[in-house]
Structure formats: structure tokens, C-alpha cells
Amino acid sequence: MKVLGIGAHPDDLEILCAGTLARFAKEGSEVYMCHVCDGNKGSMEHTSEEIAEIRDKEAKESAKVIGATPLWAGISDGEVVVDIKSREKIIDVIRQADPDLIITHSPNDYHSDHVNTSKLVFEASYLANLKLWETEYDASTKLPYLYYMDNLAGIKFEPQEYVDITDTMDTKIEMMLKMQSQLGWLEEMHNCKAPDFIKTVAEFRGFQAAVKYAEGFVQHKMYPQGLTKRVLP
Ligand SMILES: [Zn+2]
Predict the structure, then answer these.
(1) From the CA of 95, how far away is ligand 1's center (Å)?
(2) Phi, psi of 143 (to 5 degrees)
(3) Whose CA is closest to 59, among 186, 187, 175?
(4) Structural domain boundaries of the chain?
(5) How far, in whole angstroms, is CA 181 from its chain's centroid?
């Protein structure tokens, strides 16, 4: 399988679905990790240009941990809006990966970049297939399954499927620790120690699924993406 994770910012995939991406990679899937935004507002000490460069490196380091291909959609923080231009950028991300499965934000997460990413990915996942929508990349060759990952801290999210990440929990933390610039930022902005935060949510989802650590997902069920089988690990 080819699996594409699309998070709004560099660190969202690490927080919300890296344990599952690590499992896909471990089990032989080709994994792509896209951050829609460059992360250029996520700092109290650097300029926008500096922090964007730092976070680009961090995202690449994190992807490297599981041998994933990093992608960036070419948008800045806070500028993800649902319009034709952004839609086309997401179409191009999907076309580069030509995935069987996409994981992205749920439509009701806490940040407008997350909510709009979710909407854009839903729209683009179908449109990327249309040959007559011409961009610099060839049309993708299949309609991918679409899954929504957990919301931040699990708020307003009821998982329908769980992935046991007990064996990839350390990898998930390792990937998050590549986001060095964000560890202090999250603590300052949200009083949140990222590794503890990640562990607590995974433990809670794991408790629900009767395993040590888990991540929760909801499939966007739609015609004609075969609904008869489980595709998550
Ligand atoms: Zn984010």
C-alpha cells in the first residue's frame, strides 16, 4: 500500500498518527508525510523565515525515522483557506504520492488550518483523479480511502477504528523529539509537554481498545471506496 499522511503543520502527524504511520512503514507500505503549512508562525524567538527553515529540517528528520517521503504543500501558517488555489496544491500533493490511503485531520479539530486541511483533502482526494484537471503532475490512478485522525487531546472525537501502536510508541516519541523547536513552543503556548501529552492520549485510546497504546481513527465512508474491509494495520 501507499499511505499518505497530510497534517496542517510540521508536528501534527507526529502527535496524531505517527504510531500508525510507523506500523505501515514497518509492515512494508510506502509512506508519505505531508505538512500543508511551513510552520512559519510557530516561534517566539526566530523570524518567520528562520523557523520555516528549521521546521522543514525537523519534518525531514522525523520522516527519515520511518523511511517516509516528506512533502510540503507550499502554504504558510494560518493561510490554509478553502479555495481553488489551495485545493490545487493539495491535488498536487496527492498526485505526487498516488496513495491507496490518506490520513488527515478530522473536520472538527481546534485550529482553522486543521479544519480547512480536512476539507481540502476531502475535495482533492477525488479531484486528483481527474485527468482533465491539469497540473504539473499526472492525475492519480485510484480513489484513496480517507481516514480522519484524532483531534488534539481527543476532544469531540469518537474513534470508530483503533490501531495498536504499542510496538511503535517509542518510534512515535522519537519522531516527535525531532520537532525540537516545537517542544518549548507547545509548553509556552499551551502548557503542554509534548511527549507526556502524546503518551497520555495513546494510553487513553489504548485503554478503550484494551491494548497498551493506541491511536483512534474515523473513516470518511463514501462511494465507491470499498467499505467491506479493514485497511488500517
Ligand atoms: Zn497543527
Answers:
(1) 23
(2) -90, 115
(3) 175
(4) 2-219
(5) 18
Nearest by Cα to 32 from 74, 73, 69, 72? 69
CA 228 – ligand 1 centroid, Å: 32
Q: Please provide the CATH number assigned to the domain covering 2-219.
A: 3.40.50.10320
pLDDT of residue 225 exceeding 80: no
Ligand 1 centroid – CA 9 distance (Å) = 4
Tell me the CA–centroid distance for residue 30 and ligand 1, in Å: 24
**Gap from CA of 80 to ligand 1 centroid (Å):** 11
Ligand 1 mean position, distance from CA 55 (Å): 13
Grid cell 488534539 in the structure block, residue: 152
Mean pLDDT of the chain: 96
Summarize pLDDT for 31-77 with one digit per residue, the tens.
999 999 999 999 989 999 999 999 999 999 999 999 999 999 999 99
